[in-house]
Design goal:
290 residues; single chain; Rossmann fold; globular; 13 helices; 43% helix; 8 strands
Length: 290
């Protein structure tokens, strides 16, 4: 009996000193009704397998040219979530990382790509059926970096009935002047397939762009709807995207849209996003906690 008690005490001490953490499953596959494949990775909190409860969910969006594994491989999202949960700074939650490819999380102007429609109308319902997810708006958040920050902003604005909180890190938000000034090569590479091919100058500021650009959406979506979403905007002082992020902050202040805006020392890098995600998850957790 004495040896058994010592063994139990050792196991409890070991588990306390070296917690197991959550479970990560990478590159699962969802097939839409249109037979479009969307890969995704999932983080399940440590007690998911042993509890019967349902959990809040965070949809975490990656940056341009990355995929559903980037936030785990480079961003260490699972370690950051484990630490925040263990310290009581965020409640246990499920994190879903979908592959947005290079879509900017949009439907393309020609409807050949309907990533946004698939995500909203099919993927979110699939997640809520596949996992024990709390399906009310207050328990659903969205976050992302760079292209994913753009996606988090525009999806939470356009679908403000779905998301309670948005965390945008170094979001790919551009002013009209920046879009117009981009070289033909850069515009064609990053934007033409989504917002219109072979566009020059002001013609780039078309309806497809305005329907997705956060700086336009804050003017076209009713303020009372936007104010139901909690926004966290964070961009480094050395980031090439700082102009668009600061412009968004200024416009949101003018319109009276509540939000938190942070400028920290740093650039467009994983070291910046890892620290930003830790704080962003705490901000999300405030809503999950109440």
């Amino acid at each position: 009996m004495k040896n058994l008690l010592l063994l139990v005490a050792f196991v409890l001490t070991f588990n306390h000193a070296f917690p197991q953490g959550g479970k990560v499953i990478e590159s699962l596959t969802f097939i839409s009704k249109s037979n479009t494949k969307m890969n995704y990775s999932v983080y399940l909190p440590e007690d998911y397998a042993t509890s019967q409860r349902s959990y809040p969910v965070v949809y975490l969006l990656h940056g341009y040219s990355d995929d559903e594994t980037g936030w785990i491989q480079y961003g260490e999202a699972n370690r950051i979530a484990d630490k925040g949960i263990a310290e009581g700074k965020i409640p246990p939650c499920i994190i879903i990382i979908p592959d947005g490819r290079v879509t900017w999380y949009c439907n393309s102007y020609d409807k050949k790509n309907i990533w946004e429609d698939t995500f909203v109308n099919e993927f979110i319902p699939f997640v809520e059926k596949e996992y024990r997810v709390r399906s009310k708006k207050e328990y659903r958040a969205i976050a992302g970096l760079s292209m994913g920050g753009f996606g988090a902003l525009k999806l939470s604005m356009k679908h403000n009935d779905l998301f309670s909180t948005c965390v945008a890190l170094s979001s790919g938000t551009f002013t009209d002047e920046e879009i117009v000034a981009k070289s033909e090569k850069e515009y064609e590479m990053y934007f033409s397939g989504l917002f219109g091919k072979s566009l020059q100058g002001d013609s780039r500021l078309n309806e497809a762009w305005k329907a997705n650009n956060p700086l336009d959406l804050i003017h076209s979506i009713p303020l009372d709807k936007l104010k139901t979403v909690r926004f966290w905007i964070d961009c480094g002082d050395d980031d090439f995207l700082c102009n668009g992020n600061s412009a968004l902050h200024v416009e949101m202040r003018k319109l009276g849209i509540p939000h938190e805006y942070r400028v920290r020392d740093g650039g467009h890098s994983w070291s910046y996003w890892r620290t930003g995600l830790a704080t962003g998850l705490e901000y999300i957790g405030e809503k999950f906690h109440r």
